[in-house]
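Can you give me the bound-state structure? Components:
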Amino acid sequence: MSVAKAYAATSSTSGLSATSIDRREPGPEDVEISIDFCGLCHSDVHATRGEWGGTAYPLVPGHEIVGRVSRVGSAVTRFSAGDTVGVGCMVDSCRECDSCLEGLEQYCENGMTGTYGAVDKRHDGGITQGGYASSIVVDQHYVLRVPANLDPAAVAPLLCAGITTYSPLRYLDIEEGDAVGVVGLGGLGHMAVKLAKAMGAHVTVFTTSAGKAEDAHALGADAVVVSSSEDQMAGARQTLNAIIDTVAAKHDINDYLRTLKRDGALIQLGLPPEDLPPINPGMLIRKRLAYGGSLIGGIEETQEMLDFCADHDVVSSIEIVSADQLNDAYERMVAGDVKYRFVLDASTI
Ligand code: NAP
Ligand code: ZN
Ligand code: ZN
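Here's the bound-state model for the whole set.
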């Protein structure tokens, strides 16, 4: 057992404060990581504030982790001390069900083990604690190689925001010439823009924040639609093949279904605490549209995404924060004031 410094929420209203947690002694398959950076995902806000229900406190959030290997177990072959590595949203799954065997561990039929807030069935049965911490111990199967040519701090958000947007873009076979809409320009949204552009798509950003238009273009968007403008929304009708919806709050999907062409698809990624307004079935039927969802991505696909980012020189646009700025950063994220992912400098914990 070792002790890690960490930041935890102790209740839904406590905010985050300094604490310490135990990390298990690395077993044969384990990699011990000294954490350098951890991205701040809106899911961390939902979870620490108990917005989805069922949060076990105290909770150390964080599932966009980059660090260096400090120790490895005797059976670890793919990593050695000093390697720069990443950990995303999962640290375990059953490894036996069809989803696990297909490399889709995020859909494990026996329930994947989230990096924080999940029961660690394989180990001590305790609750997993995440990356707002000085170290973590993770089974080698759930550890990713970080490409050497990318800035480690700006890689951290790829471990959730990157893979969560890459996976549906791949699932939809987005390629050169496709027209992709991205709803919400936050952590997930800005990665969706960069990744869809790198795949050759024509990208339209839908934002509630008129002030983000210039940034959206700088991030690679070909067009920007301010969603509160009826004229601009009308101008976007029937223009898109696919939409990636990253909005973290209640909003009307029907407005976006209108912008899809025949056979288009809207993939829901944002997970607001409340239900969304009902979908008009005619909207789907009249253009043979598909409405679906997607959860992060599998381990193999996450490595593929990191390698794709290395090849296309894609990283997150980040603002580094120290541990004492975490609570302010959450407030700014909820207000939509983030350009475009906060990353915790773990040396300040
Ligand atoms: P974020 O950085 O806060 O971005 C969300 C964006 O949504 C905002 O920047 C804003 O963009 C837009 N938005 C519009 N109306 C909003 C409102 N009333 N309140 C808040 N945002 C509003 O969040 P994120 O980290 O990208 O996460 C987005 C959502 O995805 C969260 O619900 C998160 O839990 C979920 N998520 C899902 C998965 C998955 O596997 N499916 C993985 C990670 C996260 P504009 O200013 O451009 O309108
Ligand atoms: Zn996340
Ligand atoms: Zn499984």
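A couple of observations. DSSP finds eleven helices and 17 strands in the chain. The first strand starts at residue 2 and ends at 9.
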